[in-house]
Specification:
The complex is a heterodimer of chains A (about 850) and B (about 300).
Chain A lengths: L1 E14 L10 E3 L2 E4 L7 H6 L3 E9 L5 E8 L5 H9 L3 E3 L1 E3 L2 E3 L1 E11 L11 E9 L10 E6 L2 E7 L5 E5 L4 E9 L2 E10 L5 E7 L10 E3 L11 E4 H4 L40 E4 L2 E3 L17 E7 L14 E6 L8 E7 L2 E10 L3 E10 L1 H8 L6 E15 L5 E19 L2 E21 L4 E18 L3 E21 L2 E24 L9 E23 L8 E14 L5 E15 L2 E12 L12 E14 L3 E15 L6 E17 L2 E15 L8 E3 L6 E11 L3 E10 L3 E2 L2 E7 L4 E6 L6 E2 L3 E13 L3 E14 L3 E6 L6 E5 L4 E11 L1
Parallel strand pairs in A: 10-16, 19-22
Antiparallel strand pairs in A: 1-9, 2-7, 3-6, 4-5, 4-9, 7-8, 10-13, 11-12, 11-14, 14-15, 17-18, 18-21, 19-20, 21-22, 23-24, 23-51, 24-25, 25-26, 26-27, 27-28, 28-29, 29-30, 30-31, 31-32, 32-33, 33-34, 34-35, 35-36, 36-37, 37-38, 38-39, 39-40, 39-41, 41-42, 42-47, 43-46, 44-45, 47-48, 48-51, 49-50
Chain B lengths: L2 E2 L13 H11 L16 E8 L8 E9 L7 E7 L15 H4 L6 H14 L1 E5 L5 E3 L10 H6 L1 E10 L4 E10 L11 E6 L2 E2 L5 E4 L4 E8 L4 E5 L5 E5 L3 E6 L3 E2 L16 E7 L5 E10 L5 E10 L1
Parallel strand pairs in B: 11-19
Antiparallel strand pairs in B: 2-3, 3-6, 4-5, 4-7, 7-8, 9-10, 9-12, 12-17, 13-14, 15-18, 16-17, 18-19
The chains are: A mainly beta (about 850), B mainly beta (about 300).
Chain lengths: ~850, ~300
Amino acid sequence: MAALAQSPPAAPPTGAPPAGEELAPLTKDPALVDFVQAVYPPEAEAAGLEGTVRLLLEVDETGAVSAVTVVAPAGSGFDEAAVEAAKRFRFTPAEDASGPVPVALEFDYGFTLEKPAPPPAEPPITVEGRLQEMATRVPIAGAVVQVVLGDAIVASGTTDADGRFALRGVPPGALKLVAFGPDHQKDTVDIAVVDGEVTAVSLWLTRLSYRGAGVVGIYDRDRPPEVTRRTLSIEEVRRVPGTFGDPVRVIQSLPGAARAPFGTGLLVLRGANPQDSNVYVDGVEVPLVYHLGGFRSILNPELIASVDYLPGTYSARYGRSTGGVIDVRTQVEYPDEPHFTWRTDVLDTGVYGEAKVGDKVGVAAGVRRSYIDAILAVALAEQEFYAAPRWFDYQLKVEALDAGDDELSLFLFGFQDDLVVRTDAGSEDQLGVRYSTHRFVFRWAHAFSDTLKLEVQPSLGIDGTELGFGSDVGLTLSAYRISSRAALTWTPSEAFTGQVGLDAEASRNDFALYITGVPVDGDDPLSEEEPFEIAEGFWQGFPDPFAEATLRPLDDPDRLLVVAGARLDAVIRSEEPIGFAFDPRLGLRAEILEGGTLKAGSGLYHQPPPLTDLLDTYFERAWASEIGWEQKFGPAVTADLTGFYRDMQNLGGGDSPGVGRAYGGEFMLRHALVNRFFGWVSYTLSKSERNDEPDNSDAWYPFDFDQTHILTAVAGYRLPLDFEVSGRAQYVTGNPYTPYDGGLYLLDEGDYIGFPSAATNSERQAPYYAVDVRLSKLFTFKHWQLEVFSDVLNLVHGENPEFILYNYDYTDSAYINGLPTLPSIGFQAEVNL
Amino acid sequence: MTRLGSSFSWGGGGPPQRLPVFLCALLLGCQQIDLAEEWELDRLRLLATRAEPAEPRPGDPVTFTSLVHVPDAAPYSAVWFGCILGGEAGCSFDPALLDGLEDLASLTPEEQAEVFASLQEAGLIGLEPGLAPAWVVPADALDGLTEAEALEGVSATLQITLTTEADTELVIRRLPVSRAATPNSNPDVVSLTIDGAATVSGDTVTVAAGATVDLEAAVAALEDYTYVTTAGVTETRTEELSWRWYVTGGELGGDGFGPPGNEDEGALASSQGWTAPDAAGSHVLHAVVLDGRGGMGWWSLAVTVE
């Protein structure tokens, strides 16, 4: 850096009297009070030149410089710079016996370049080392490391990005090394520093909390736009009681989801029938989201990154359903070192691992097997008949980690579920049911530029269903699926995103049915029986294109979002006419007030007929609309109020289709995980009903899972020492049912046909209420962590009828109630190699 | 037998949605549900109706005997209708015709005859007590059928309404009508033993209070018959029996797992454990056998528990 230095006056000041006058002697010399730095001429500075300019300054009686004359120039721009600076000097006025007088004086203005100061002599490094996090082995950056002697800190430093530190000048002797960080507990070790040697220290710090900061129910701008997406972050929702640690199960604690009877795992979203909602894994449709019994979702929780819960008015990217959508998203962040998880509880055991293979490939794999059937086999050893679920699932994901503008991944996953039925004490027979699903997904995404991206995701799949009841009845259903999602996304600016895509599937469906004896005349109980066997197969296809435009027209792109899309639905089945439908959809989000967002959406949704209607290509359709308001209250609290209406038409197809409607409101008040606390209250007020005689306005009746009030409260608190306690309370209106009173006895069959005593689904079961709690403790070791947890379901509960049973002649009835208080325990170990 | 009251639809591209519900019911089914069992006789019941002949031809007269349980031997009435083309809900007629029966006693004999005539025209074949059920199979019952179809026959419908002051039982029973060369005959229960000791139908036996005894009922033989399949193949088949046990007290099923009706198909005999009530009293016990072709038989005992 250049610096300026001024020289003292080169000559004593002299007065400047008119010519010929005698100068009176000065009684006070002028003194420079305001020195002005000259601009160092850049060329001279660049050339490393220095110089001194001798100036003659004329200072008036006020002390101002009235004239500057170069007496001895230095050139190279120094003269001009010196003159400009000197003009702005101020002096104290010179005085003689008469008072202040003007004077002239010489001034040497020197220009010198500042020489960098030589570095001080640095003491040698005497203590060095590295900080890593317990269990994860992640280097701790930015942590403070101090060497302490008694109460005095004799050396201090911070860790670099690799967690390393080096301290100098530590005196020899027995000392203590203290390390701590903003997210880690303080730890102290004794060290011995020897003069002339470097003491190496490796220290492991425990994180203040290993619980991640999860979020529930927020709008995530980085995800594809939806009017209402309740995105679940895994670390938080896995700790909701009653979920058995499965993030997908937390859906039933969110607004818009009806309570499914225990053990069913049915998805009832905004009053829609379970079969009207679709389930996806990374955008690939799967037939089930839960294993048999509804205890577990079909994916290992470690692989699940988020669960997109779209209860209604979702975008054109999803189709073929009139209800809601659940899309389970997988994502793996491959650690530098292999990471393994082992989880065991009363239901099943699963292991999962993820690792990098070299620098360019990441691999994640998991497998899980249940044994609740084995437990029940022991617990119910004396019972002649029982049924229990058995499941197995696997996942394998391989990703390219550094493929430039490309993203490549392979994902193989599947499951097999059996309903194990034991019919005689001591013997077990797998008559019953077997489901299996397998998917192989290839994903390739390529960024042609910053604005144009192509994503292609073809997949292959096999679904199988086998039903067997001894040797008398056998049914097999097989579906071989080829599907593909493809989308070309163009984002010319932040204000606009356009996307065109294809959501296509073709499948070969085969079924075979064998029954030992079927009445030749099915209406006649005395009819002779003959064996019945049929094997058929057919193709079906859904080549559905879609297009969507996302507008963010305001300067602040978060203030207004408009999503307009459309989808063409087609259903093609062997030898049947092609069915078409068109789904326009529109969504809006506008931040109208500070932290307050208005959201609205409306759209048409079509659903092809189920396979049981294989000889038809009709569509059920629903017009779904919603409007709501989201409000943030500070950094932690969010409220969401949404009203919805869904009009359903052509239910069941055929000549006399039914109609339906579902409407209501949803409210959610949520406290994000801040200051160790998280929780939410959700309330759904809804009505869903259908009419099989659309011309008869009196023929409306509730859907089977119409639940007027669904109130859920979830709260969790992180205690010190990595204890965590959480609870869930739920109140739900009882499901409707049709009452019966007596019946008609069919003597030959030995069976009664019940007489409905009131309209369909006109009565309701008693309401459901229950409180679940969960307590967990995390133990952290150098290379691994162990979490031990206990869920207590129905700690407080009502009778909670799930089903109503009638006696043989419908003259008496009783409820099958939900489970009693049910504790369960388990553990999860995570190991970093 | 207990029944699941709710109904759920199958559908969707995936597995049937009914299964999870079924599974849930099974998982929760370990609960003790205290509902009346089908074998437990505690209300008005029609347990069996035996037609003679068991498989009439068109124009044949048919008589009926019934096994009815009436609590406390209360008086009851039974109205019988018969028709060839009855549906699951029974024979079709104007229900207003039954109104005339309510005021029957106040009618003159001529008016009563007129009411009966109207009812018989509508299909009335019995009105107990008083008019024992009897039916002449319409001569045109098999008209319009091919010869092969006539050999197989049709099932006529009998609609029976039992009434006491306190209870009503509605029953539908089928009666095969054909031109079969070897028509079906009713199965006859030929024995019922209690712990191996023979009994006589209609007799009274004594069982110690709280005792568990082994019951076994049997028929003499199974009938063979000829059946022509829809593919035209002539088969000789053997009828398969099903058994139903009924009792007014105690616990049927030995260990308490007596399946409702205790159907034991395909065997000549049916065995059943019965635990007598702890309290002394009088009970009745029935073993009913059905041959699946419209034939029925039974064995009844009066049981004194002491």
